[in-house]
Amino acid sequence: MFLRSDFNGHSKYILFCRGNEKFSPERREELISRNVQRLYISTKDTDKYLKYQERNLKYIVEDKNKSSLEKSGALYQVAKNLTEDLLDSPRSGNHIERASTWINNIVSHVLKDEDTFSSLFEVTSHDYHTYTHSINMSVIGLLFGKYLSLKPHELDSLGTGMLLHDIGKVTIPSKVISKVGRLTEEEFTAIKKHPKAGLDLLEYRSNVDGLSLKIVIQHHENHDGTGYPYGIGGSDIHLFGHISRIIDVYDAMTSNRPYASAKRPFAALSEMKEKMSVCFNEELLREFICFLGPKDPRKKLRTTDKLYNLPSFTK
């Protein structure tokens, strides 16, 4: 770890502690006496630091001296690292186990901390990549699940399914996944295979339960039966499938994608309700809007924002 020294507009980093040195009470007092607020690591040690955070995530989440934002930031950073590893090696049982442990920690954070809504939304990414989208899905899904009063074990399954929902995309050529222009019919046919491919990768994993797998296979099924891969609809879609369909679309629309800029939450919800309502369970979409509405930090409306008929969204 390094200390930073600023002089004449230039920064210099001075070694404070080597990796194999014990952080003694004397070293701690030294930092306090010098009013040092931050220590730094080399960029080449970032992966080591994230692995250290991951190993100690339970203690970070339970630390009463850390703010909700600090805990949320650590959770999100760890998730980015492990999700990238998972997508690189989707058949690794170790990575699936790491994902399961992360879910346990974030569920604990969501249930015990009343400030998780604002802090977790603050750390989520607005740039669309498969791994950031998966983390956002899990974060938003858990917060919405808490709002719906789901039980802790249901939240575990919901969060796991959301995190793993797009794992089947590792079987799709990357040039198709990241294509900027309109997909050809052949390319779209390939894309539509990813829910089943994800199910094939996960269905025999003992630490991924059936509720999580419902999300993996159903997150593109529409309420009116026009979705894929099976074209089921209505009550044939599990509750978690309906939830994942709503959040999948919402997060995609509010993120910067290769072919479209991010929409504001208000605009995304408006389009989902007015132009895509057949895709979603109407009652759940209403609940999702109620869930986001009171907590949206962007209170000021644009002149182009179209107001809803608010009484129709009351419980």
What does this structure look like?
The chain has a two-stranded antiparallel sheet. It has helices at 25-33, 46-55, 57-62, 68-88, 93-112, 116-123, 130-147, 152-164, 174-177, 185-191, 194-202, 210-218, 239-253, 265-275, 282-292; strands at 2-7, 10-15. It has 15 helices and two strands. Helix 2 (46-55) packs across helix 4 (68-88) and helix 12 packs across helix 13. It has two domains: 1-40, no CATH class; 43-313, Hypothetical protein af1432 (Orthogonal Bundle), CATH 1.10.3210.10. It is mainly alpha-helical. A hairpin with a 2-residue loop joins strand 1 (2-7) and strand 2. This is HD-GYP domain-containing protein.
The mean pLDDT is 87
Shape: elongated
Q: Runs with pLDDT <50, length 5+?
A: 296-315
Strand content: under 5%
Biggest sheet, open or closed, and with what strands and sense? 2 strands, antiparallel
Adjacency order of strands in the biggest sheet: 1-2
- CATH architecture heading of the largest domain: Orthogonal Bundle
How many strands appear in the DSSP assignment? 2
CATH superfamily of the largest domain: Hypothetical protein af1432
What structural class do the secondary elements suggest? mainly alpha
Helix content: 40-55%
Distance between the termini: 53 Å
SSE pattern, N- to C-terminal: EEHHHHHHHHHHHHHHH
Using only C-alpha atoms, the radius of gyration works out to 22 Å
- How many discrete structural domains? 2
Q: If you consult CATH, what is the topology of the largest domain?
A: Hypothetical protein af1432
Please work out how many helical segments DSSP would assign. Answer: 15
